[in-house]
Each structure stands twice: as C-alpha cells, then as structure tokens.
Write the structure tokens for this entry.
Amino acid sequence: MKVAKTIDDIRRLVADARVGGAGLVGLVPTMGALHEGHFSLIDAAAGECDFVVVSIFVNPTQFAPNEDYRSYPRPVKNDLSGCESHGVGAVFAPSAGEMYPDGFAAAVSVSGLTETMEGNCRLGHFGGVCTVVAKLFNIVGPDVAYFGAKDYQQAAVIRKMVADLDMPLRIAVCPTVREADGLAMSSRNAYLDDDERTQSPVLYESLQLAERLIREGERNAASVIESVRSLLADNAPLGKADYVAIVDPDNLAAVEEIKGDVVVALAVKFPSARLIDNMRVDVPKANR
C-alpha cells in the first residue's frame, strides 16, 4: 500500500495502476478515525474494483466555527494499518494547504436537497462537503465512489451533484453498520461518556418505533414524529433532538401524509457529541 500526500503523487499512483491493468478504480472518501463502518465500504470497494483508494482528510470547510474540527480524532497510524489490512492500494492523506492553497476561491453547491435536516442545522456544511468531494473526484478520477447510508442526506446530495455535473463515476451507497445495541457506528461515538453511551441506542430504537407505526398503518407523519420525540425524551434525557423528519427518499421533501416509501431521519445532540441516524421504510403498495 502506498501513501500519497500530494495531488500529483496520488494521480501518479492511480495512473500507474491503470497502466498496470486495473480496470475499475474505487474511492472511499473518509475523514479518518476509521471504524468497521468505514471498513465495510473499503471491503465493498475491494470486492468490486481492481484498485482502491481511501482518502483521509479532515475537511475544514464542512465544519462550522463552533464544531469539532480541531478536536476531531486523527489516529493516523491505526487508520493506515487498517487500510493496509483491508487491501487498500493507496491512501491519499493531503494537508489542508494541499487541498486549499492560498487564493482558493471556488465552491460547489447543490440547492434543494441541502436546505433541510443537516443543511438547516449546520449552515454551510454541504457546501464544504460538495466542494471537497468534487475535488477528490477530480483528483483521483474513480470509477466508483463509496458512501455509507448512515449519512443518507449526504449521499443524496453527492448523487445529485454527480448527475447534474455529468461526473463520470457511479455512487455506491452501502448499508449502515451498527454496534450490537443498534447504535450506528460513527467516529464521534468515541466522544460519548458512559451515561451518554448508555442512552444513545435509543436513536435506533426510535427509528424502529417509527417503522413499526408506519407498517401498522399510521399515515400521519406528525403523529409518528411525535411518538419518536417522546421516546427520545423519555430514554435519552441527556440528548436534545435537533430534528426528527420523515421525508421523500428521492427529493428529501417533508412528508405530511405517508403514501409511499419514506426515510425517517433524526439528529440528537448530547453534551459530548451530536449523532445522526436514519431508516428507510418501504411501504407495500397494498398498504398505501
């Protein structure tokens, strides 16, 4: 496995791989602090592609001033060891200066999908995400890029960006990987203290409640949301729900009456960490 810290170096490694016979090149964009969720993406890429690139870059432009950019975990040695053990061909680990040199003034944005949920709570977040991901696509030139379903809105935004800008690659979205108690794996889970960690599985329990209510015939989204908020308040008193939303899976528009498939998404802010999760609920046509 090779480690590239400059744009020229990673481009050269990818070019050499293609010359050497690599058909498909896969990219797994990450901010490091890799866990089993990330490794599931890497394994999916390795199973489909001939050469896998993992980017490790804590992107400053997607953090608000009051967020955890400086404290975000950066266990570089462990990340590199994990990548090597999962068959990664190259790691791209640039500095902020390499990605955003002096005078950098460009930006990529996607309207519509970014004004709700995370976009409403984290102003400017998706502009930073789209810009850095577009840069990574241009730098690495992958055939397929892999993202996790835990960040459902992010995946939808990236897919829209790729489609609208005619970027020549496919976006693969892989299932959320969970701890034994249902908590979605996230690098930020390490921030949780013991009490917060004990309460955190209620996020998934709340999604399961929403799924059960919808499958049992509840069609009023506000009623489902109220039930979810009540469960969160009762079982995670240390957390505050930033939002609980029921949205259309494609355009992320809020749903009032559940007539078809939906995504239930939520964000809960604990004193030590802000956690997100979601679940797609497919409603059988006979029950719509």
About this structure: The chain has two domains: 2-174, 187-281.
